[in-house]
């Protein structure tokens, strides 16, 4: 298990909800902003959402209020609750960590989890 590990990818139908989880090592969770990115086949990797250690969340415009990112302080996890899923949400979802305190600190990517939205 690396510094960041994603869970929760699945095949679902349009309109369904799904929660992705990113398990972080203790140090990463404590000092890093965590981002969710996604990459559809043949496309570039796009930022979906981010949350700082202080809980400030930001979202890509295409989320349109459907997704919620949150920190689980008990379990060192960052969740991405995705509602009203659409076919275009199909992608591999990755979490990424970047230090809030040291610009030269190592950054981390998880291995990704597949989300497929299809009827």
Structure description:
The chain has one helix at about 25-30; strands spanning about 5, 10, 20-25, 30-40, 45-50, 55-60, 65-70, 75-80, 90-100, 110, 115. It has about 120 residues and is mainly beta. The strands form two sheets. Strands 2, 4, 5, 6, 9, 10 and 11 form a seven-stranded mixed β-sheet that branches. A four-stranded antiparallel β-sheet has the order 1-3-8-7. The longest helix has 6 residues, at about 25-30. The mean pLDDT is about 95.
- What's the end-to-end separation, in Å? 33 Å
Q: What is the element string, with H for helices and E for strands?
A: EEEHEEEEEEEE
Radius of gyration: 14 Å
Global geometry: globular
What quaternary form is this? Answer: single chain
Number of strands: 11
Strand percentage: over 45%
Mean pLDDT across the residues is 96
- Number of helices, counting only DSSP H or I runs of 4 residues or more: 1
Largest sheet: number of strands, sense, barrel closure: 7 strands, mixed
Q: Helicity range of the residues? A: under 10%
> SS-based structural class?
mainly beta
Poorly predicted segments: none
């Amino acid at each position: 298990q690396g510094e960041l590990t994603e869970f929760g990818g699945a095949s679902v139908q349009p309109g369904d909800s799904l929660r992705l989880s990113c398990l972080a090592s203790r140090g990463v969770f404590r000092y890093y902003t965590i981002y969710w990115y996604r990459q559809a086949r043949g496309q570039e990797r796009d930022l979906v959402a981010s949350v700082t250690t202080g809980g400030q969340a930001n979202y890509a415009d295409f989320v349109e209020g459907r997704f919620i990112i949150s920190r689980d302080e008990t379990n060192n996890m960052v969740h991405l609750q995705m509602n009203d899923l659409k076919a275009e949400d199909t992608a591999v979802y990755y979490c990424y960590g970047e230090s809030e305190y040291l610009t030269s600190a190592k950054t981390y990517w998880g291995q990704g989890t597949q989300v497929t939205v299809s009827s």
